[in-house]
Amino acid sequence: MTDVILVEQVERVVKITLNRPDALNALNLEVMEAVASALEQYDRDPNVGCFVITGSEKAFAAGADIKEMQDKTATDMLNADWFAGWDRLSRIRTPILAAVNGYALGGGCELAMMCDVIYAGDRAKFGQPEIKLGVIPGMGGSQRLTKAVGKYKAMDMILTGRMMDATEAERCNLAARVFDAASLVDEVMNIAKEIAGFGKLSVMAGKEAVNRALEGGLTEGVLFERRSFHGLFSSHDQKEGMSAFSEKRDAKFKGE
Ligand code: CAA
C-alpha cells in the first residue's frame, strides 16, 4: 500500500505532501491521522522551524472523502466526533504554510485555512461545495472562511458552492500570494526556509499573537502581544538579533 502522505525534511523545513492521486487527495481518516501525527512529531523539534503542506498540481485536496462518509448516520458521525481529529492542527505552534495547486475544495479548502498562510498556484481553485452534497462545511469552513473573507463573500461561496480562482482568492485575502503553478512549491519552500531561519521562540510568539487577534477582543489581544513581546527579552535570540543589527552583521539564531 502506498503512503497517504509523503514527509520530507529539507534543512529546517518539513514538507508534507498529500498523496492520494487516484482520489484527488480526498481527506479520509487515515490522512487526518497521518498529517496530525507528522505535525505533532516535528512541532517540538528545535531543528524544525516551519512546515509546508501541499498536494499535487491537479489537487491540493478535493475535499473530505465522500465515499468514506456517504453511508454514515448522524449517530455514527456524533459517536465518532467525525473530523474532530483535525483540531489537533490548531495546537501546532510551528508555522504551517499551505502551498495550494489545483483544487482546494470542501475539506481541502478547510485544511488550507487551518494552515497559517495560504500561497496559491495561479490555477488553484478554492471552494466549499458541500451544499451540493446536501450538507455544509464540517472542518471549520463556515468559521475560518468568514473570518478570512467576510460575511458576504463567505455566504456567496458556501450557499452557491461555486469555486473561486487564485486571483479572486488573493483579492479577498484568502491567499496571501499567488505564484506560477510550476514554481509554487519551490517558492513556498524558500519562504518556509526564511521563516525557519529566524528564532523559533519569536516565530512561535508571532503566530500565537496573530491567532489571538482572531479569537479574542482587541484590548486583550494587544495586551497578550505586549506581554509576549516582553517575554522574548529573556531569550538569547533577542539579544543576538538586536546586537547583530547594531553591529551590521547577520544574526545567528539558536531558538533559545
Ligand atoms: N471524495 C472521494 N473521492 C473523490 C473526491 C472526494 N471529495 N473528489 C474526487 N474524488 C475521486 C473521484 O470519485 C474519482 O474517483 P474514481 O476515479 O474512482 O471515480 C477521482 O477522485 C477523480 O475525480 P473526478 O473523476 O471527479 O475528477 P474531475 O477532474 O472530473 O473532477 C472535481 C474534479 C471537480 C474536483 C470533482 O472530483 C469533484 O467535484 N469532487 C468532489 C468535490 C467536493 O464535493 N468536495 C467536498 C467534499 S465534502 C467535504 O469536504 C465536507 C467537509 O466540510 C469536510
UniProtKB/TrEMBL annotation:
Among InterPro entries, the record links this protein to: ClpP/crotonase-like_dom_sf, Enoyl-CoA_hyd/isom_CS, Enoyl-CoA_hydra/iso, Enoyl-CoA_hydra_C
Q: Which domain of life is it from?
A: Bacteria
Question: What keywords are assigned to this protein?
Answer: Fatty acid metabolism, Lipid metabolism, Lyase
The top EC class is: lyase
| Gene Ontology process terms (BP) | fatty acid beta-oxidation
Does the record bear Mitochondrion in its keywords?
no
Q: Record's Pfam families? A: ECH_1
- Supply the Gene3D superfamilies for this chain: 2-enoyl-CoA Hydratase, Chain A, domain 1, Lyase 2-enoyl-coa Hydratase, Chain A, domain 2
Q: Which reaction does it catalyse?
A: a (3S)-3-hydroxyacyl-CoA = a (2E)-enoyl-CoA + H2O; a 4-saturated-(3S)-3-hydroxyacyl-CoA = a (3E)-enoyl-CoA + H2O
EC number, as in UniProt: 4.2.1.17
> What residue ranges carry the coiled-coil annotation?
none
Q: Name the PROSITE patterns on file.
A: ENOYL_COA_HYDRATASE
Known role: Could possibly oxidize fatty acids using specific components.
Task: Identify the PANTHER family for this entry.
Answer: ENOYL-COA HYDRATASE, MITOCHONDRIAL (PTHR11941:SF54), ENOYL-COA HYDRATASE-RELATED (PTHR11941)
Recorded protein name is enoyl-CoA hydratase
Native source species: Maritalea mobilis
